[in-house]
Amino acid sequence: MISKRFLSTRFRLQGSVSNHLRRLSTPATMISVDDLNPAVLKVEYAVRGELAIKAEEFRAVLQDPKTASSLPFTKVVSSNIGNPQQKGLDQPPITFLRQVAALTEYPELMKTAKDAFPPDVIERAQELLTEIGSIGAYSLSQGVLFIRKSVAKFIEERDGYPSNPDHIFLTGGASPGVSLLIQMLIKPVTPNNPDPSGILIPLPQYPLYTGTLAQFSGTALPYYLDESNGWSTSPAEIEAALAQAKEKGVIPKALVIINPGNPTGALLDESTQEELVRLCEKHRLVLMADEVYQINLHRPKAAPFTSFKKIVRRLNSPIPLVSYHSISKGVTGECGRRGGYFELANFPDELVALVYKMVSVGLCSPLSGQIGVDSMVRPPKPGSPSYDLWKKETDATQAALASRTHTMATRLNALPGVSCVDSPGALYLFPSLYLPEKAIEEAKKLGKKPDEMYAMDLLKETGICVIPGSGFGQRPGSDHYRLSCLCPGVEEYVGALERFHLSFMKKYE
Amino acid sequence: MISKRFLSTRFRLQGSVSNHLRRLSTPATMISVDDLNPAVLKVEYAVRGELAIKAEEFRAVLQDPKTASSLPFTKVVSSNIGNPQQKGLDQPPITFLRQVAALTEYPELMKTAKDAFPPDVIERAQELLTEIGSIGAYSLSQGVLFIRKSVAKFIEERDGYPSNPDHIFLTGGASPGVSLLIQMLIKPVTPNNPDPSGILIPLPQYPLYTGTLAQFSGTALPYYLDESNGWSTSPAEIEAALAQAKEKGVIPKALVIINPGNPTGALLDESTQEELVRLCEKHRLVLMADEVYQINLHRPKAAPFTSFKKIVRRLNSPIPLVSYHSISKGVTGECGRRGGYFELANFPDELVALVYKMVSVGLCSPLSGQIGVDSMVRPPKPGSPSYDLWKKETDATQAALASRTHTMATRLNALPGVSCVDSPGALYLFPSLYLPEKAIEEAKKLGKKPDEMYAMDLLKETGICVIPGSGFGQRPGSDHYRLSCLCPGVEEYVGALERFHLSFMKKYE
Question: Long-range pairs for B397-404 at CB < 8 Å and ≥24 separation?
Fold first, then answer.
């Protein structure tokens, strides 16, 4: 006879073994990649991909005193992303914006710490709070009307043409607005709609566009920018891409223009902009104008910014235009706040209402971002108590970025096997690499693209994280990388880049 | 001979007429609804739909002294949405959270206005800033690790089971995480994948779920909650919905449970939760547990909250679970900040990495929301300088909501033709209306659902904006509305509801 105790032990063991097996088999049996929307697998987003993850690993190694000395560098520099206020970078926040933000967070300070704030800051915060109430409350899905009116005024003053606050949508940075419009324009392929929808995307491009297109199973219709001509945009290249789309049966829906360019930093001249608007008219395209770097201008006289809204209005063009702006870049650099807007032009009311419905499902963009947008479009005026400090801070940021970009481009251009357009705008350089045959063979062996290998080696040897050109798209056979120009201590930084590059070239010569 | 001047005038006129016509024809010729993804047209989101828009119109009328007296009420009460800090409602922000927020916005105040902040607030802000650097910088896409560790600790203390910060994603409220998971789980219908994907959704439900499903062309598989049993969830109803899905060839991918319920306020008991977990095991479903109202409990002894994470771990179940939480509800009520998180359980690493990639495309959630999450999961401890005020504030909010909900339910139940479950949780009531035949006929004539007509009349006569039951889903032939229990001055508010209801019933009797 088997004892009770034995039985119970046996069952316990069985139970435990079966639980153990169950745990082991959990991932395979209950959910796997095969259960997912296959579009998810196709999304690529290099800016926060393999290199960025490796950079975070190194950062953790450096933080631990036991392991810190195992690496040949003492800090990781995140040049992979345009994140001006990141630790170790050198774009300080604008005091005016932060003071307004602090008062809207905790209005009691207007009484308890009145002296810590200039009077125009207190006035602005009061004005915003009167409109908004608590910044802990949802606003209208489209954003606070009062702030949309400020944005409309800013656009009118910039362009000299009217702007309608009802056609402005405040968003959490520019990205959600880009994603929304792509989602709205891409018609899924179905038996009744057999032709895929496509969107014209510049190459190189900020991977938000291809990433979002992959998510919504749209087709990217790439057109190349002309590196030999300062990364300029050629309407003929776009026409060629349209002809290719037609051959493949893809319906083109929109043209994406990034101006100033990301990752190229190029600026469009007005005559090209006019041609592009006419091209959209001819092909019935929505123009998606990503203008988030509109005030990051390093040589504003030689290479000024003109908005597409102004061009469209000046030409009296009927093309549907979506223009994007953000507080993440420019002199504001408030990425973490998540604020921005898009303006619709030439969209019929019915479509504006549909956009409104779609943004409603996501409720509203963060109020701290909305208030950041207000501060961006309504900076202190000359003569007001906050003006001098604001001017000093923003001038310093502009000057530092312009001089750093130029120095970096000059030094990179002096290296063997590197050629770099000296960008007139945005926050980046996108140098071209002419790598030795041996390096290209080595990369092949590793199953990597040559610039991927280069960027990974650079990170491992210097702690500098850049993104290979393959993450942005480039002509086959060419190699690039994007680095942001936000690093402090340009001498030390470029010195490390130079040393790495020379030793890399020597290794594979 | 025609004079030069005449010619030029004539051309000018022609140009102007053609431009004028062009403008008139713009909407029709360049973009129309036919150019859009048809899924966009199917999205419905009643919480911010027709009634909410009409309420905003009334608000504008009341703000203008010339028109204010044209309406039979003096204020609009937005009971259509759970927005605790909205103007005119009565849930004040938590001082501790706002003080921490103000200092992270403008750290200079630690020097210039030190006395305006308790020492534990300063300590917390310093700790956060050491980890984050500037709140104007992007964090990791998944959210600040330090804050994810705080969340993991909160979950561990709540449930008694381990939580992994790497499986926690900080999000801008709960909605973006819901949307992401739905997008990842729904496989588009293609020739190679002919069977539509479905997600089990309770009815009535928060329309985020059906709205997002419509966006991604997924199929809602509705299961009804049992109003006669306090809006309880019946596994048998879900089995029936699954059988129906099978008949229609729809592949069920996930089960959505909202606990505490929205719009019902119902709470699940643990044995039902266990049954639901077993049901997910049996049918290989992802469990999406929307637990954003987890601390909005009006009778916590009789109807406590237990997380699904706890149940899944206690049963040692292998089901993939996504649990959502938010700072928008509860005693925090910080909707406008956009903060929340989701935790993945039993997701293989490969899938966690895919989720990471997808959130990366959207960069990161707002830092002010992430910091809000930290304050929610790490409130002041007993004995700390901020504790007493925090306790007083949160107790007052809990007590006011509980007493108001009960009073409103009792008074609504006393009305002829109304029956209302006295919700034990969340922020809403969802009374059932038994409307006279004549009212139903009148609605039919107007092309409206009866509860839509009722809600619109209520708004027009009292300024109280509620959402008809049809916006949440209800059994055919039944009529309801959802109202939030956040209104102040319950006597005046319920008085207006009662007078309207009685006159409506009389009108159509």
Answer: B397/B84, B397/B91, B397/B92, B397/B331, B397/B333, B398/B331, B400/B90, B400/B91, B401/B91, B401/B296, B401/B298, B401/B427, B401/B485, B401/B486, B402/B298, B402/B299, B404/B485, B404/B487, B404/B490
